[in-house]
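Limitations

Structures in this collection are predictions, not experimental determinations, and the ligand pose is part of the prediction. Treat each record accordingly. The example that follows, with BIS(adenosine)-5'-pentaphosphate as the small molecule, is included so readers can see exactly what is and is not provided: the inputs are given verbatim, and the output is the predicted complex.
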Amino acid sequence: MLIILLGPPGAGKGTQAELLAAKYQLLHIATGDILRSAVNKGSPLGKKAREFMDKGQLVPGEIVVQAVFEKLEELSDIPGVLFDGFPRTLEQANYLERALKQRGTGIDRAIYIEVPEEELVTRLTGRRVCRECASSYHLKFNQPKVRNVCDRCGGELFQRDDDTLKTVTERLEVFKQQTAPVVDYYRELGLLTVVNGNTEISQVFNQISAALDQR
Ligand code: AP5
Ligand code: MG
Ligand code: ZN
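Predicted complex:
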């Protein structure tokens, strides 16, 4: 089962991916998380990526694609993959399609989580993320049981550098210009399911689960 989660920044891709990965035993590949961990390590990849991420712009193709393909090597041992934040350009979608074809497989379903823009800004500026396992929380909508502590692993919560109003605005613009065409691309292939992301986390999860079970 190969699933792509599409949606603007703050749509809930990471939140849903975590729930779906557990339910369907999928490997969760989140390019944003991979890049942030490279930034934290201060690796050459991280240093380069940081310049773009802090501005809310996309990290140039090559770097991201390489990181994803390294993860894909693990594919043979697992029942499926959930891509979160990838592909984000038509170029990346084409790379992915070719790589999967070489392995004799292809995307089963792309899920687009739709949320109005005003809601996205509120979600992102109030988000807190676990330093250890990258789980997402929200100051109002999705609080951890203990303040600033991850429910899942006990890690410390922090605010992402790119969750400031200025960078969020740029990320939303980048989504419209570069990633919206990817949504259309999967729609034209007949692989897209659109879900209403402007509702409770559990209800978004039910809609996505229904789409995957129907497949
Ligand atoms: P990335 O980390 O992928 O960020 P993003 O796409 O902007 O998406 P987010 O992680 O911000 O949002 P999300 O949809 O995961 O929402 P979440 O579940 O956390 O990418 C960051 C950067 O890395 C990019 O800007 C780019 O520079 C680079 N990058 C990454 N991938 C790349 C690629 N392929 N190519 C090039 N560059 C790349 O939820 C958000 C908040 O809302 C949380 O607080 C959560 O608790 C809350 N929430 C979730 N669901 C609900 C709900 N239903 N109701 C109320 N609150 C909710
Ligand atoms: Mg995310
Ligand atoms: Zn954690």
